[in-house]
């Protein structure tokens, strides 16, 4: 069988060493925040390329916006998300077009990258990691299953899958959230990957330890099929009762899943609606460390929405800050002064600007835009900060 591209166990990168070696091994420079973004060439580019870029995103740095490192990725991968494990020693790179998980060792320089083939998983999307650092979970939107993996070896252990006739089912799973203390996974039912059609409208609860699929719940108040397309789900750390937020991509609203300790189930409720304000396609979620602020991106036309969640079950919108078309993944600086917004969503028309917006939370406004990748004909697909600068939040 002809191999479509090489799958090396390790990639060795030696680019601009005079900049990179001091960056990684010297004390942190003043005015420097280093982010990693996976990128791909925009569809209209003649030469298609993918890679990982390290860019200084600190607006006060003399190197602001400069690409300090470029790590190539195999063509045709369509690398999608970047996820840290629990101790930030690895970054996992999911892919939409290949059944391959890339794992980047962040403890060595040059960075070492290995590939893990997962043939049972089509369209690798989101990941969740257990607190004991033993297990990871991966959603497979194209094959409608969840892969459980060993977090030490990174080898898949089992696949969680249902039949179409099951009352509790997994279908086009994208978002995933793990609550270790409840032994529960929540998984969204999003869209068919091939054409982003056939949108789901449900969240499925799974017993994490056994992989037993427990129940499926509708997260739309419209008649079925509603076309809601829930896309992301995240638990609010430390919330009591336990609570998760859910973004409905096509319906344009926000839901909560609140744990009922007596019934041992989640109750679902809509808590915000972006559509009346002219903001559509809510995507990524993030919290501050204190747990009283909540950030949601809306990709069309592009905003960072800031909520007060002093009462987690009744979020109050404080401000919607314009970013750029395709506002998607976000990450907070370690001092929580800045939010960095990656503006590109699946190369979709009017939602693939290709820039990074810097939002100053003290000023409550966007203060800068990084066009480093955009100007080269690339779209960034995800953003995280390097371990030294990471805030410890979700970063996805």
Properties at a glance:
396 residues, mainly beta, four-stranded antiparallel sheet, 47% strand, disordered N terminus, disordered C terminus
What's this, in brief?
The chain is an all-beta fold. The chain has one helix at 17-25, and strands at residues 34-41, 50-56, 67-73, 79-84, 90-95, 100-105, 112-117, 124-129, 135-140, 145-150, 156-161, 173-179, 184-189, 202-207, 213-218, 230-235, 243-248, 253-260, 265-273, 280-287, 293-300, 303-308, 316-322, 327-332, 338-343, 355-360, 365-370, 378-385. It has a four-stranded antiparallel sheet, with no helix packed on it.
Instruction: Tell me the radius of gyration.
Output: 20 Å
The proportion of residues in beta strands is over 45%
Order of adjacent strands in the largest pleated sheet: 3-2-1-28
Structural class: mainly beta
- Helix run count: 1
The biggest sheet amounts to: 4 strands, antiparallel
What string gives the helices and strands in order?
Answer: HEEEEEEEEEEEEEEEEEEEEEEEEEEEE
Helicity level, as a percent range?
under 10%
Shape from CA axes? Answer: globular
Q: Please, what is the oligomeric state?
A: single chain
Mean pLDDT: 92
The low-confidence parts are 1-27, 392-396
For the termini, the CA-CA separation is 36 Å
Total E-strand runs:
28
């Amino acid at each position: 069988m002809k191999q479509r591209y090489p799958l090396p166990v390790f990639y060795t990168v030696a680019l601009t060493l005079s900049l990179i070696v001091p960056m990684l091994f010297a004390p942190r420079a003043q005015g420097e925040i280093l982010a990693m973004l996976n990128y791909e060439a925009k569809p209209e580019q003649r030469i298609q390329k993918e890679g990982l870029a390290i860019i200084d995103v600190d607006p006060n740095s003399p190197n602001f916006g400069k690409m300090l490192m470029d790590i190539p990725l195999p063509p045709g991968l369509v690398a999608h998300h970047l996820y840290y494990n629990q101790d930030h020693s690895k970054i996992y790179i999911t892919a939409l077009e290949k059944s391959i998980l890339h794992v980047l060792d962040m403890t060595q320089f040059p960075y070492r990258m290995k590939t893990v083939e997962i043939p049972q998983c089509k369209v690798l999307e989101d990941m969740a990691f257990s607190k004991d650092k033993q297990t990871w979970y991966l959603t497979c939107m194209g094959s409608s299953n969840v892969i459980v993996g060993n977090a030490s070896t990174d080898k898949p252990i089992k696949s969680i899958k249902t039949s179409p006739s099951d009352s509790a089912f997994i279908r086009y799973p994208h978002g995933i959230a793990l609550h270790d203390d409840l032994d529960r996974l929540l998984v969204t039912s999003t869209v068919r990957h091939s054409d982003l059609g056939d949108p789901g409208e449900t969240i499925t609860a799974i017993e994490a330890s056994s992989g037993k699929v427990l129940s499926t719940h509708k997260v739309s108040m419209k008649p079925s099929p509603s076309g809601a397309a829930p896309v992301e789900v995240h638990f609010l750390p430390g919330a009591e009762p336990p609570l998760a937020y859910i973004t409905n991509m096509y319906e344009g609203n926000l839901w909560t899943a609140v744990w009922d300790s007596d019934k041992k189930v989640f109750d679902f409720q809509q808590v915000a609606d972006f559509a009346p304000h002219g903001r559509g396609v809510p995507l990524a979620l993030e919290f501050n460390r204190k747990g009283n602020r909540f950030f949601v991106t809306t990709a069309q036309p592009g905003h960072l929405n800031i909520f007060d969640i002093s009462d987690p079950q009744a979020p109050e919108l404080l401000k919607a800050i314009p970013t750029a078309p395709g506002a998607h993944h976000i990450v907070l600086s370690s001092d929580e002064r800045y939010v960095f917004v990656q503006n590109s969503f699946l190369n979709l028309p009017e939602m693939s600007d290709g820039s990074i917006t810097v939002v100053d939370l003290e000023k409550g406004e966007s203060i800068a835009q990084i066009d480093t990748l955009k100007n080269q004909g690339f779209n960034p697909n995800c953003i995280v900060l390097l371990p030294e600068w990471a805030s410890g939040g979700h970063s996805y």
